[in-house]
């Protein structure tokens, strides 16, 4: 399903990218928060360290002590997680907070420069991990001189709790951001794929005859595709014109020889050479079928055009021609078509269809032939109705088959088949059937024109 939908693939890719980006962002923000809180903890511990250093005094016995210890009550509560310790180098304990109880803070064996501040992570009481800040100072003579190390430490569990709370509060906001980014991604995909939808609509318009080319109103990324499609359409139009011209040349080139052949057949028949005349008639009919087939093939390539035929005008013109024939002169003709009605078909092709249908109607009608047309749904339906005997339903398929004959009147048996081929070439259809008792209808369904 994903492989068949570009929109779905883009949405899935966008969703995965958003989730990865937000996951990385949440992890990064948690790390930044943890480091920020750790720096604040270290800064607070440094203030305590400075106060310890400022509070160093000697008691009456000359022992170094902290005259003014930090007033945070956690320093007085055993194993509270907040500790301080003073050592005279190398490892002589001078004093420590009550919170350490009977434990010591293990310091790393590193070289400390005088007055420099060092920060460590060390092991604390009860298996805890502490953030420790220490400083090495050399005491003045009034305090006994010599170097001492002052250390203040805090349990890092507080840092973990703060980071966990921050992450928990961050997740809902990350969900909201994910939702907003998802909506933005969907809008972006919709806007990005809009030109492809425009191409599809333009192609549908070309297929339906409402347009000839895609045009140039596309983004730079889509325009090369539109240009190639337009070039392909132009090439196809040239091929169509070539095919139609070849078919017309073929029909014109064979018209005169066929007329001469028809005259020879008639003369031979009058002279009693009926066998030779029949053979020549068969050859002439075969040649005529080839001509009609080529013309039909040329028409079948014309479906992509934007032609439009005025049905009333074409029907009136064909009726005038057929009405002057010996068969049509004795009939009443009626054309009941809205003058503004148009069908998407070349006028010559519509005339060819109606010519075949009206010729058949003239040969089989008793008194009257009616041509009607109306819009039915998305189609224009042109009906030729005569009061002849009609075609039995079981013979309709045979009548529409090329060369199919259901009577013995003169003809090639190609008229209805050619009319059906032309209608089909323009996305239409020819249907035969009775309407009322004693009437026959040939209905041509064609797309609506502009």
TrEMBL record:
Localization in the cell: Membrane
Gene3D superfamilies for this protein: 1.10.287.130, Histidine kinase-like ATPase, C-terminal domain
One Pfam family recorded for the sequence: HATPase_c
Keywords: Kinase, Membrane, Phosphoprotein, Transferase, Transmembrane, Transmembrane helix, Two-component regulatory system
Enzyme class label: transferase
EC number of this enzyme: 2.7.13.3
Residues in HAMP domain copies: 190-241
Annotated InterPro entries: HAMP_dom (IPR003660), HATPase_C_sf (IPR036890), HATPase_dom (IPR003594), His_kinase_dom (IPR005467), Sig_transdc_His_kin-like_C (IPR004358), TCS_sensor_his_kinase (IPR050428)
GO biological process: phosphorelay signal transduction system
Keyword GTP-binding in annotation: no
An annotated GO cellular component: plasma membrane
Catalytic activity: ATP + protein L-histidine = ADP + protein N-phospho-L-histidine
SUPFAM superfamilies in alphabetical order: ATPase domain of HSP90 chaperone/DNA topoisomerase II/histidine kinase
Keyword field contains Kinase: yes
GO molecular function, one term: protein histidine kinase activity
Protein name: histidine kinase
Species of the source: Rhodoplanes serenus
